Fold this sequence. Notes:
This protein is α/β, with parallel strands linked by helices. It folds into 2 domains: 1-25 and 99-164, no CATH class; 28-90, no CATH class. Helices cover 29% and strands 13% of the residues. The chain is built from 4 helices and 5 strands. It has helices at 44-53, 76-86, 98-111, 134-145, and strands at residues 15-18, 28-32, 63-67, 92-95, 123-126. Helix 2 links the parallel strand 3 and strand 4 (92-95). The longest helix is centred in the middle third of the chain and has 14 residues, at 98-111. The two termini are 39 Å apart. 12% of the residues are buried.
Amino acid sequence: MENTIVNKVSNSSLVVVDLQDYKPNGVRNLVDITQWLEDGLLREKSFRQSLKEHNWSQYKDQLVALDCSADVILPAWATLLITTYLSPHAKTVILGSLNDLEKHLFSKTIDQLDLERFKGKPLIIKGIIHKKHSFQERRYRKQRETINKSMRKAEPFCPITDAI
């Protein structure tokens, strides 16, 4: 009798979903509003002039998070004005941190994902290595629940092998 190794997983009906495959491509960049503060204050006249002189083309086709690392109160129009300058150049502009940007991008990707192709098939979700990606796993699971309300809860990093 021949002792050949058979990969039963690859021959099974299991579908492996690697969430890293759904990570949107593109350069991420953080624009910090503190670069336009003077002594911790936003002075409208110099702020508007600085925005006009800023090289906005450096953000061409980038995914941009607009945030303020200083603990200051900013007028709402300040972020709107910066977004007005960024929008013609950047692919995406969100108000928040780089982590918020990743959450936004992943949510958008998962919302557009056609999950019908996984219907009735056992799944294994993989690719959640870092703690910061636990949001992506939860988001994917939530989207998946729209197909199967009886999905079992699983600990992070554990395979989900129940059928959708």
